[in-house]
Amino acid sequence: MYNFKIKSIVHDYGVQFIDDTQGVLLKELKEGDVIIIDNKIKELYKDLLQPVLDLYWHIGIDASEKVKSYQGVMPIIESLIDNGFRKNHRLIAIGGGITQDATAFIASIMYRGVDWYFFPTSLLAQGDSCIGSKTSINFNQYKNQLGGFYPPNQIFINLEFLDTLSLWDLKSGMGEMCHYFIVSGEEDFTRFKNEYAQALTDKKVLAGIINRSLEIKKGYIERDEFDKNERLVFNYGHSFGHAIESLTNYRIPHGIAVSYGMDMANFVSVKLGYIDNSVRQNIRELLKQVWEGTSITDISLDKFTVALSKDKKNVGKTLGLILNKGYGKIFKDLRPMDEQFVGWLNEYFTNELN
Ligand SMILES: NC(=O)c1ccc[n+]([C@@H]2O[C@H](COP(=O)([O-])OP(=O)(O)OC[C@H]3O[C@@H](n4cnc5c(N)ncnc54)[C@H](O)[C@@H]3O)[C@@H](O)[C@H]2O)c1
Ligand SMILES: [Zn+2]
């Protein structure tokens, strides 16, 4: 099983693949620790978790974006303070990216920082968000506006949790991991493409993909933890993806929206002569498998351009896009939102979504 360390400016932390979640929890937890758990996981894994929940106090949360807000974290903080949670106690998050973000945000601000452990249960959290130390909550309707960098002290990954994940959340995790493999290079992308179908049914193959995804991300976050330079390329597919997520009211899960987003970035890259159409088509063959069964044809071009113009990476009125000059050559490009660019988007929405 895989086991490695991540260097962080905040504090180094470890990632360990495990197969006995109950045993690890019983061994690692100490008096005073509090578990913050996705209610769905609590219900689905009752038998496995009950011996632990009997011994340690826990707070169940409904994993919706609403939890990731001031209003959402307030009752959790209130309950921690009311029940004697102290600086030397730890928070134990069990759930997907939402449980992670809410717990990490609370851990980072409570008593100027308390230790926390993370047991990711979604593929997106296992193969991507669990490392990298970002903590985010939403503000009003705007996503991930508030937060900082505060990694857990230890991450325990058990792929058995994925048995109960919906096909859409599984595909979302695959789509999200895919962008690391394209950023890494042709060899990694080809491996991902070849193993995609098998990974959905074979845990050994999937574990290899998750481990490689984290390994690629690790290289970047250790060099640019605070997302100022090299790490920015991981926004590949995300400017377009975030616009798709918000304009479909999050009906399209993050990693699937990012898959459409990567194809849009590649489409623009072909238009600009950065890559050959054959590269785009080779990647699209894989991306189509991720998004197949979903539709985004109801998005209006006008709303899409407005959403794109709000992206965090923009500089003034210029779009900060992450584009493609080939496998392993993803880069940040500044593009005006001019008639030509809007024309390309129009062409994409008219011809490329079937
Ligand atoms: N901090 C970061 O670096 C980072 C990176 C990427 C995404 N995110 C955030 O993560 C969130 C998306 O992550 P996510 O997709 O894991 O969200 P999530 O926590 O909402 O999980 C997705 C859905 O799957 C359910 N679920 C989780 N594990 C399950 C399991 N084992 N079996 C059955 N159902 C399960 C959840 O209840 C939820 O309905 C977003 O809020 C995004 O902003 C954070
Ligand atoms: Zn993402």
From TrEMBL:
Keywords: Amino-acid biosynthesis, Aromatic amino acid biosynthesis, Cobalt, Lyase, Metal-binding, NAD
A single GO BP: amino acid biosynthetic process
Ranges in a coiled coil: none
Cofactor: NAD(+); Co(2+)
Signal peptide: none
Record-annotated 3-dehydroquinate synthase C-terminal domain positions: 173-314
Protein's UniProt keywords contain tRNA processing: no
Gene Ontology MF: a single term: 3-dehydroquinate synthase activity
Domain 3-dehydroquinate synthase N-terminal: 61-166
Keyword GTP-binding among record annotations: no
Gene3D superfamilies, sorted: 3.40.50.1970, Dehydroquinate synthase-like - alpha domain
Name of the molecule in the record: 3-dehydroquinate synthase
